[in-house]
Design a protein that fits this description.
single chain; 130 residues; mainly alpha; 7 helices; 44% helix; 6% strand
Length: 130
């Protein structure tokens, strides 16, 4: 099953099929379900539930989960039409401001022993911060 999201160590992307198989094995009703994904993360499991026609509520303590839910669960074809203009606006923004994402997830010189994963380029971190 195709889902979208950020690749990271805790991703459930490789578990989506097994989760769906387990639910289907215990499901007694062919009618659409209402289901909550309480550890939604990047919403990969929620996306799989939605693709089955189920009503999905996603929840997580991670602040980014709301953005993922808006992008992958709530967005409609109509609201998606705004995306090209938003990308143009982002591309014309001043991307020199480094903030939390850049400082936490990027190859920032001078940071030693912080225990943070440095997996993005600073230019991409600034885009995300922007």
């Amino acid at each position: 099953m195709q889902t979208y999201g950020v690749k990271y160590i805790g991703s459930k992307a490789s578990l989506v099929e097994k989760i769906l198989q387990n639910i289907n094995r215990h499901l007694n009703s062919p009618t659409p379900l209402s289901i909550i994904d309480v550890f939604a993360g990047t919403t990969r499991v929620s996306q799989a539930f939605r693709s089955k026609g189920w009503q999905v509520q996603s929840s997580d303590l991670a602040w980014a989960t709301e953005a993922y839910a808006n992008a992958f669960l709530i967005r409609t074809e109509e609201s998606g039409k705004r995306i090209p203009d938003l990308i143009t606006k982002l591309n014309s923004s001043d991307l020199s401001e480094a903030d939390w994402i850049t400082n936490t997830y990027c190859d920032v010189s001078g940071i030693k022993g912080s225990g943070s994963v440095r997996m993005w380029k600073p230019t991409n971190g600034r885009r995300a911060d922007s």
